[in-house]
Amino acid sequence: MVLTSPRVDVSGARAGGKLAARWRGAGAALATYALLLLLWQFADRLFHIPPAYVLPSPSAIVAGTAKHPDALLANTAVTLGEVLAGFALGVVVSIPLGAGIVAWKPVERVVYPMLVAFQAIPKVALAPILVVWFGFGPGSKVTLGFVTAMFPIVINTVIGLRQTPPEMVHLMRSLGATPWQTFRLVRVYAAAPAIFGGLKIGITLAVVGAVVGEFIASNRGLGNMLLAANNAFDTPLLFGIVVVLSLLSIALFYAIELIERLVLPAPLRRAHEIAPGNER
After folding, report:
1. Residue 203 and residue 226: Cα distance in Å, rounded?
2. Per-residue model confidence as pLDDT tens digits over 46-91
3. Is the pLDDT of residue 279 over 50?
4. What pLDDT, on a 0 to 100 scale, did the predictor assign at position 280?
5. Three-class SS of residue 68?
6. 69-273: which CATH topology?
7. Can you tell me the distance from the alpha carbon of 92 to that of 105, in angstroms, rounded to the nearest whole number?
8. Cα gap 108→99, rounded to integer Å
9. How many CB atoms lie within 10 A of CB 122?
10. What's residue 154's pLDDT?
11. In the chain, where are the structural domains located?
12. Between 15 and 1, whose confidence is greater?
């Protein structure tokens, strides 16, 4: 008779442990946020801050913002449209540009310094020029969102394409694959996590670019609404619009992350997360 020890399935226990750890982390984060909101709510009593015009309480911000639901919704839709248009243009231009920089040295020598120099220019200084070129309509805001989002997408595309394991490229060559097949099936696949990282940065910067454009010249959008609230000295509404912009950026960021999880297989994402320099 051969005695065998019973097998213990630890996969379920590990999954349960990970799920419990996530719930504990989420609970700790929510408790921290709740504590910060409570401190903010009673900041006038605890720190003697006059809340009416310096730091309105969260309840005052909600009440002040709730007075303008239609205007807030309409201006949010305008800003969101400008952000998405500028971001889409950035994706269409930046990813092929990054691929061109990696594929051809002359393109890298010419374009890379220009990109760095262009990124060094404050985007608020570009806004008046874009208004002259594209007018007071959405074109100038879309363009500013595009130029603001472009740089991180290009850089992450270049970094991702250059991190392709050489052995995978050699294997494709040994199998008789064409350069295009190698690029499409190996390089883009390996670079996808880095590209998505650039997209997540770019979508938040596109929000900044669109709002800056609305500051300079517009009669619609959250940036214009911010200026109107500032001129009216409506501090609760100012804070409310800032909160809406923050929530908009967060929602767009996690929308890109959701697309990444749907498009990329889990092993590829995990390999990128544990790569040197990407530990979480």
Report:
1. 21
2. 666 665 667 787 888 888 888 888 999 999 999 999 999 999 999 9
3. no
4. 42
5. coil
6. MetI-like fold (1.10.3720)
7. 21
8. 10
9. 8
10. 93
11. 69-273
12. 15
